[in-house]
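Q: What does the assembled structure look like for these inputs?
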Amino acid sequence: MNILDFNKLSLRDINKTLQASDKNSFFSIKNPKGSHALAVGINKQITVKVVGSVGYYCAGMNKFSDIKVEGSAGPGLGENMMSGNIHVTGDVSQYAGASGHGGSILVEGNASSRCGISMKGVDIIVKGNVGHMSAFMAQKGNLVIFGNAGHALGDSIYEANIYVAGEVASLGADCIEKKMTKKHLSKLENILSNANVSDYNLDTFRRFGSARSLYNFNVDNAKIY
Amino acid sequence: MKKNSITEPRTSHTFDAYTNSEIRRAAETGIYDIRGGGSKRNLPNFDDLLFLGASISRYPLEGYRESCNTKVILGDRFSSNPLNLEIPITIAGMSFGALSAQAKEALGRGASLVGTSTTTGDGGMTKEERGHSKQLVYQLLPSRYGMNPDDLRKADAIEIVVGQGAKPGGGGMLLGQKINDRVAEMRTLPKGIDQRSPCRHPDWTGPDDMEIKILELREITGWKVPIFVKVAGSRPYYDVALAAKSGADVVVVDGMQGGTAATQEVFIENVGMPTLACVRPAVRALQELGLHRKVQLIISGGIRNGADVAKALALGADAVSIGSAALIALGDNDPRYQKDYEKLGTTAGSFDDWHEGLDPAGITTQDKKLAKRLDPKLGGRRLANYLNVMTMEAQTIARACGKNDLRNLEPEDLCALTVESAAMAGVPLAGTNWIPGT
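A:
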């Protein structure tokens, strides 16, 4: 295991080391002090453990690597990630997984507003609650919420799926509750087991997605726009 | 019986023929007009300025003999690999999706022939434009369609798009007609649906966040490539200051004559400021921060010829960017397709329904047959010719003003033809020492 200590190294040093490391390396990052842009742009299968909380954009544009934050994360966690896995033991701020194309994010605590905004294929699991406008304009992928969802969930959603076990404050434009089919139950089970989540009851989840009524402009929808 | 004299029919300035037709169209369809291009109003513009030329108080340089530098470096504030351009005219961001793959290739070929850069657009980077653009600027847009770190690392510069002159504060729209399989796949959306591009970035708001976003992009790309920030020309003084403060290497200011692939007509014509009015406030913001020439300023929106280039540079810009003009150079709105334009209910020179994908010139389309009309090699050559002409025109003017570098042109080389343009450009009204507003 390689230890990278923020008390001794700069952000540039740490990111450079992670980005240039050999495949299958393991790193432990100490004293992150809420640093922004930590462990961004990693392009290979490595494992990174961050001991403490991080700031904006941790694990941004991640590919292949597994990154665990033992603490909480600021805005834009795993933004535009392509693959790999991100695991946060605490809470996360706004825009978690924004425009993520693939991979998975597991948040053990709560996620703030706009979780999964513009997501394009990433799977996001939040064990707690999510804030308003989550999955806004979500294109593809899955947002799984164990707790409650704030207002305007899934506003202007495209082909992503949202699964919620708790209460939904309100749905956004063009987002509707959809039938939970066997296929979707199986999908949900896969998403959870791939993220090593075991304490769940599939029967408690409801599924939400697009009514597809806003896909092409129609003047009769003018009041919704 | 004696006939009364007949008065001529009197048309209304308020309800002119275009206005009336637009009211009828709205009543019939229930949809606001969407179109491509930039403002078509008769706005104050660079034509309202004149160069004074040299005489006794200043002496000129010999045309064709004495050199006049056109090179410019963009982005050397923080990046280790800035763009080294042979000419101060770049190609603005235009997306694959809005444009055909052939058009993107032609832009890359033409720009590379003369040593300048092209820019991607909403929808990501295609292999055609990366392959044919020696210097390619990769846009980070609010939609993040097609955004991925591999392409980010292939880019020679990154442009964070905050706004666009045709629609400050507005997002984009690519109608379903242009969403074929390839465009749909690149944007991770179903084929045939209208694709909306948001007006704000999904993961930041405001200058403090943007500073951190820039840090992230630099960390991903190893601080190698320059970071541009593009803003619409609406509040250039504040926006340029905030972009520079946030750590941009280059700021692009796009005035309201700047084109778009598709937006509401009411937006294009009623939101934003003329390009002419944007330059001096942008320059002043950089000067007050001590960053003029350190953070380079690119001006775009309705740049058409070497005189426009020279005037923008004289007012303090480091370079200009062209979009619509580059498309015209490729063949957009060419009269040789007049019959085809008529079939679409328009004429060569007025065609702006770029979003419908039926462009007779094969540029703003995803229709395979139409797209084949544009030969990328020939298109590239035409663009290179045009860029060379613009550059030589600008040099001609600069030499006449006694300048051996285009960027040595200065406001003192200019006068204005109208009170409005004098106030906007901050140069004296012709024949006076009067600069309105000072």
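The first helix of chain A runs from residue 11 to 20.
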